Fold these 2 entries.
Entry 1:
Amino acid sequence: MEYFLQQLINGLTLGAIYGLIAIGYTMVYGIIGMINFAHGEIYMLGAFISLIAYLAATTIGGGSVAVALMVALLATMLLTALWGWTVERVAYRPLRKAPRLAPLISAIGVSIVLQNFSQLAQGARVKPLPPVVRGGFTLMQSEDFAVNLSWLQIFIVMLTAVLMAVFTWVITRTSLGRAQRATEQDMKMASLLGINVDRIVSITFVMGAALAAVAGLMVTLYYGVIDFYIGFLAGIKAFTAAVLGGIGSLPGAMLGGLLIGLIEAFWSGYFSIEYKDVATFGILVMVLLFRPTGLLGRPEVEKI
Amino acid sequence: MSPGATDVARPASEGPLLNVEHVSMRFGGLFAVNDLSFSAAPRQITAVIGPNGAGKTTLFNCITGFYKPQIGQITLHHPNGSMRLERLDDHAIAAKAGVARTFQNIRLFAKMSVLENLMVAQHTRLMRASVFSLAGLLGLARYRRAERDAVELARHWLERVGLTAQADEEAGSLPYGHQRRLEIARAMCTRPQLLCLDEPAAGLNPRESAELNGLLRSIRDDDGIGLLLIEHDMSVVMGISDHVVVLDYGRKIAEGPPVAIKADPAVIRAYLGEPDEAEVPSC
Amino acid sequence: MARRAVIDAALAGLVAAALAFPMLGFRLVDSATGLSLATRFDLVLWAAGLVALGRLGLGLLRASTIGISLSLPALPNIRRPVGWVLAVAALALPLMPFADRNLMDKATLVLIYIMLGWGLNIVVGLAGLLDLGFVAFYAVGAYAYALLSQNFGLSFWVCLPLAGILAAGFGVALGFPVLRLRGDYLAIVTLGFGEIIRVILQNWQDVTGGPAGISGIERPSFFGLSFKASAPEGQQTFAEFFGLDYSTDHRVIFLYFLILILALLTNLFTLRIRRLPVGRAWEALREDEIACRSLGINPTLVKLSAFALGAMFAGFAGSFFATRQGFISPESFTFIESAVILAIVVLGGMGSQIGIVLAALLLVGLPEWFRDLAQYRMLAFGGAMVLIMLWKPSGLLSAREPTIRLGERA
C-alpha cells in the first residue's frame, strides 16, 4: 500500500511534466494539423535555458533560492517561447500550403538542428545540478517503507494545476482563445472574418513553447541532470500522451500525460524499468484500437 | 453488344432491383432518414429528390455501405442471388453486390491519369486475373489478356463520355464538367448492377446537363442496369426519370411517376414552404 | 525596398541575439564546486551579425527584379535514359581508376540507403502511409540474419529470403491492427513500434546480446568461395579459385555489387508492381480512400500489402547490413535512421525512384565526405532537410509518370 502510494505520487509528478509538453503538441496539431516534431527539442532547450538562467540568477542575485527560481522561470518561458516562435516563422510558416509531409520533414530537420546545436554549444556531457529545493514530508510510515512527498513534487503539481487553469481560462474566456478555436475549426473562414491567422498560429507556438519551458525547468529541478538528448524521448512520450488523450483536446493532453506518467511509474515500480517504454506504447496501441480518436477526442463522422 | 453491357440474362419476371425497407439513420438525436421504404427497378431511372437536408445523401451512404443504418434492411437482387447490403462492408457492396456510386463533391484520383482512374475501377477483376499480382509480376499471358480487356472497357467508356482525347491527362486537371463525366465512367467500369449518382448535374451548364441526360438514358437503355439518382433540380429529374421518390426531413412524402409528383400538393409544399398566414385568408 | 530589407535584417539580428544569448552566451562548465557558468558574449554578436547579414542578403535578393530560379528540369521523358545512365555508371564504378576502397565503402553505404528509400517509397510514396518506424524492419532483417547464421549455421543466401519474409511478417503483424488508423495516428504507432523493437533488442540479453550487440557475424561468400585470406580445410578462397592475389578489396567490391543488385531488384520490382492492379490501388488509396472503397477495393488488404512489401525490402537490406558490418547493435537502429530514410523519400519527391537516388546522394553521400567535421555534420544535415523542403516542398523530382497510356508514348 505504501509502495503503491509512493508510485502514485511519482507518477503524477512525472505525468504533470509530460502533460505540459503534450499541450504544445496538441494545440499545434489542432490548429495547423501538423506533428511539430521539434517540440521535444524546444522542451530540451527550455531545460538548458532554465539551468543557465537559474545559475546566472544565483550568481548575480545572491542567496535567495525562491527569487532565483522565479527569475529563472520567467526568463526561461520568455526565451524558450522566442525559440518556439522562430522555429514556426522560419521552418513551418512557408510550408503552410505545401504537401502534408513537407512540414513534418522540416520539423524533423529542425529537431536534428536543435539537438546538435545544443550539443555544440553546451557540450555532450550530462549537466548535473545539485538539489535546489530540498525536503518534504513523510506521508506514511510503515516498518520498512516511508512514503515521501517532497516540496518539489508539490511545487510541480501545483504549478501545473495553476498553468492549466490559466490556460483553460485563456482558451475558453478570452477573445484570443475564441480566435484560436475559430482558426482551429476553419482557418480560411477565420481569416475571412478578420482574424489574423498567422498571428494566432504564432501565439499558439509561443504558448506551447512557454509550457514546454516550464516542463524543462521542472525536469532540471526534479532529476538534477539534463543533456542535449532528453528532448527526443520526452517528445515522443508527450506526443503519445497527446494522442492517448485525444489530439486537439487540452484536457485530453493533460489526462494523457498523467496516464503515461502513472503507467511508467507503476510499470517501473512493479515490473521492469527496462520495458517501461514498451508498456507505454503498448497501451497507446490498445487505446487507439478501441478508441481511434483517443480518450477525450471527439469521434469523427466521415463526411462523404 | 458493347463490352460495357451486362451479359447476364435477367430473369423473365423482373422484380425490383433494390428494396429499401423501413430504414432509419440517426445522428445524435436527429433522424437523417426516418423509416424509409421504397424500391428501384432494373432498367429504370429512379430519382430521389427533396430539399436540402432531406436525407438524400445519407440514404445513399446507407445503400453504398459508408453508413450503417440503425434500423431497416436494404436488399439488392443480384443475378447471383439477393444480398443484404446493410450487412456488407462498403467495399464488398461495390465488389460483390455490384453497386457503384459517384460523389456529390467529385472524388477522383486527382494525380492519376484519366485512364488510370478507369483501371483502378477494375481492381477486383484484375486482381483475380493477376493472382494477387504474382501472374502480373511474372508477366504471364493470363494477366496480359485481362489487362487488355480492362483497357478495352476503359476505352469504351472514354468514348461514351467523350474523353478519349484526354485519356492520358491528369484527372485533377480536367475541367469540372469532364470530371463529373469521368466519375460516371469510372463507376461504370466496375460493371455495376445499380449505379447511384449523387447530384450528377450540379454545377453543369445547360448544354452539359443535356448531354448528361443523354448519357444516363443510354446507360439505362443500352447497359440495362438500374440507376438511382439524387437531384436537386426538378427540371432535370422530370426530364429523365421513370420513377421519383420525394424526401423531406428524412421521410418519404411522395412517390410515383414524374407527372404525378409535379402535381402533388405535399411536394409543392415541401419545396415552396407553407403559405404564409398573411397571404392565406383566414377562415 | 532596400530600406525594408535593412529593417528586416536588423530585426532578424536582434531575434538571433536573443536566441543565442542563453545558449551561446553562457556555457555550463563543470568546476570543483559543481556546475558554474562561463560567458562568451562574442559568440552572440557573431550569431546576430551572421543572421542579420544573411537576412539582408535574402531581402535584397527578393527585392531585386532579377529573380533567380533554382529548379531542376521537369522533363519526364529524360527520366528513363537518366535511370539507365545511373545504373550503368553504378555498375562501372568499381572499374574506375579513382575507385579506391574508401569510395567503394561510401558508395555501398549510399546504396543501402537507396534500397531502404526504395522500400519505404512503396509505403509512403505510393500507398501514402506515414511510417516513422521503418528502421524496425531493417533491424529485424539484420538480427534475423545474425541470429540464424550464428545459432543454426545457415549461410547468407539462405538467410536473405528468410530475413525478408520475417520482416514482412512483422510488417503484417504490426500493420493488421493499426492500419485502419488515420495518417498521423499511424505515424505515432509506427514510431512507437520502432522504439519497442529497439528497446527489446537492447534488453533481451540472452538472445540479442543486449547493448553490446552481436559480433563475428558470418561474412558472405561468392558461391561458397570465401573472401578470407585462407579457406577452411578442403575449400578454396575467392582469390585462389580465380588465381588472384589475395586482397581485402575483393570483398569490398563484392559487397558493393551485392547491394547494387539487391537495390536494382527492389527498383525493378517497384517499377513493375506500379503497373499492376495492386500498385495502382496503392496510389489510388493515397489519393482518396473513400473513392477506393466505393470501387470495391478493400483498403486494409491493400495497405497491408504495401506495408509487408516495404518491410520485406528493409529486411533484405538489414541482412546485407549485418553481413557487411560483421557486427550489429541496437545503436544502428535508432529513430534517426527512420527519419533519414523518410527524409530521403520525401526530399526525393514522393514516389519518384530517381529522386530517391538524388536525395540519398545528397543526404547520405555528401555528408560522408565531411566526416572530419563530425560535429557540424549533423547540424548541416538537419539544416539541409529544412532548406530543401522550403525550396522544393514537393520534393526534388515530383512529376509523375502514368503507369499506362492509351495514346502513343510521348
Entry 2:
Amino acid sequence: MTVKQRNPRDVFGEVLLELGRENDSIMAVSCDSGAGSGMNPFKQALPHQYLEVGINEQNAIGVCAGLAEGGSIPVVSAIAPFISMRAFEQVRNDLGYANMNVKVIGSSSGLSHSALGSTHQAIEDLTLMRVIPNMVVFNPGDCYEVEMSLREAIKHKGPVYIRMPRHPMAEPLDESQRHFKLGKGEILMNTGDEIVIAVSGTLTVDGLMTGKILDEMGYGVKVLNFTTVKPLDTELLYDAYKDAKYLFTLEEHSQIGGFGSAVLEALGSVKHGVPIHIVGITDGSINTGPYRELLDAYGLTWEKVVDRILNVIQK
Amino acid sequence: MQIETIERKAFEIRKHIVHTVINNGDGHAGPSLSCTDILATLYFDIMDVRVDEPKWSDRDRFVLSAGHKCLALYGTLIEKGFEKADVLETYNQLGSKVPGHPDMKKFNGVDFSSGALGHGLPIGAGMALNAKLKGEKNRVFVLMGDGEQGEGSNWEAAMFASHHGLDNLVGIIDRNGLQINGSTRDVLDTRDLREKYSAFGWSVKVVDGHNIEELLNTFQSIPFQKGKPSMVIANTIKSKGMPFAEGNVKYHHWNPGKNSQESKDALDALERYANDKGWIK
C-alpha cells in the first residue's frame, strides 16, 4: 500500500491540462464548479478551451451535446448529484442515446460532501449512469485511478461518466504493479479462494485491509478491484466466483443499483450455490458528519467490514 | 417565383403528413401542419445543406426541439432529397426509420435526435458556440413549440446564448396557441414571449408563420442584431391545411382511419388548395 497526499481533483486538473494541450478539441466545461472541479489550472492556461456555463446543469449537458456534434470533446464537471440527477434526461437522451463524445465528471461524489447533507451527497449516481446506453462508467478510488480514468475516457469515443472522489486516498498497490485498462478489473491480493471481496471506488484500501486481516485469521482471500463499473470485467469476476465460498461486494454507494447490483447481474445466471452479499449504503440512510466517521457509521470502514464478513461466515 | 416554389414544397410536405397519418395511423398531424411553412422556407431557401453530404461539417443545422412535429421534418427532408418518400410507409411499424420522434442515427438530414421537450435550445446553443469557436459561418435553427416554453431548460439556454453572444443561433417558436390539454393560455400562460426573450437578451421578431414572403424576409435578415441570438415567434394555426381541424386541439394527435370521412375531407382539402393555386391541370 502506498500513501500519497495528492488530492484527486488536483491530479484530475493536471492531467486534463496535459491532455488539453495535446488536443485542442478538448474543452473543459464548468458549471460554476470552482476549485472543486480541479479545472482552474486549465482555465488559466487554456482559456480558449475553457467554457463557464454557470449554474444550469440541464443546459450544460445540452450545450456539451451540441459542442460534441461539431467535433469538440467536452469534459463537463459539476457536483455529482447535480450533473447526474438534475440533468439525467439530458444525459440519457442527448449523450447516451445520441452517443455523443462527452465526458461527464461527477465531482465530490459518494459521501465526499459528508457534512453538507444528503442534497450534496451522491449515493445513487452509479445506478443512474450505469443504465444509460453507450455510457462507460468509471468509479476511481485513488489518484492513479482518477488519472487513468480520465486518460481512457478521452481515448474512448462516446459518453463517459467519471465518479470523482474528493478526499486524498491511499493507493492499494504501487503504480508499477498496476495495469489500468477500460473494462478490466485487477487482483489486489490472492491468498486463496474462500472469500472473494470485489470492491469499486473509494473503499479499495478498506477492501484490501479487510482482506489482509481475514488472511491473517487463516482464511483464503481474493480482493478484486474494479474501476470500470460499466462495462464490467465479468471474466475476472466469474473466475474468482466459481471457486469461492463467499462473495462480498464493497462500495461507497447505495446498495440499490450500484456496483454490487452490477456484480449480481453479471453472476445471476452462473450455477454456483454461493451467496453474494452487497456491502454498501442501506436504503434510506440520510446522515451527516466527518467523512471517515460517516463511512464508519454506515459500516463501510475496514474495521466494520471485517466484522460484517465474520458475522456472515461464522454463522 | 421563389415564394410559389416554397409554397408548392410546403404543399407536398403537407401531403406527406396527411397521407402518412391516414395510411399508417396515429400521428401528430396538427403540430406538424402548423410548422410546415416554416420548414419549407428554411430548407428551400435559407439553409445551406448538402443532400449528398448530410454530415457536411459547415452546414447550417436544424434542431426540431418539438420532436413530435417530426412528420413535417420527414416530409421536408424527403422533398429535399435526403431520403425516399416510401420510407414513410414504415411509419408506426417495427424498426421504422421514421419513429414518432426523429432519430439522427436513422434518418439522413436529421441533425440531432429529439423528443423530450426543452432539449433543443441547449443543444442548438452548443452547436452555435462550437461554430463560433471554430470560426465557421454556419447557423443553427431550433424550432420549439409554444407549450414547450414551460420547460425551464429553455430559459437556461436563453440566458446562456445571449451571454455568449450567439448571433448564429436562431430560435423559432411555432406559436399555434394549443397544447395537449387545451390552449396554452389556459394550461400555463406564457404571456408575452417577445418581452420575455427580449429580457433574456435576444432580438425578437413576430411573424405570420404561414406567410412565406414574411418568413423569407425575416430569416434573410438574420441576425436581427449583431451579437444577439435571434428569436422568431411565428404565429401559426394548428392543423393548417385541414380546414375542419384548424385551431382544434383535438387534432394534436390524429388517427382518422383509411376510409373515414375525415380522411376524405383532408384529401379533398389538399386537392382543392392545389386546384385553387392552379397546380392541377
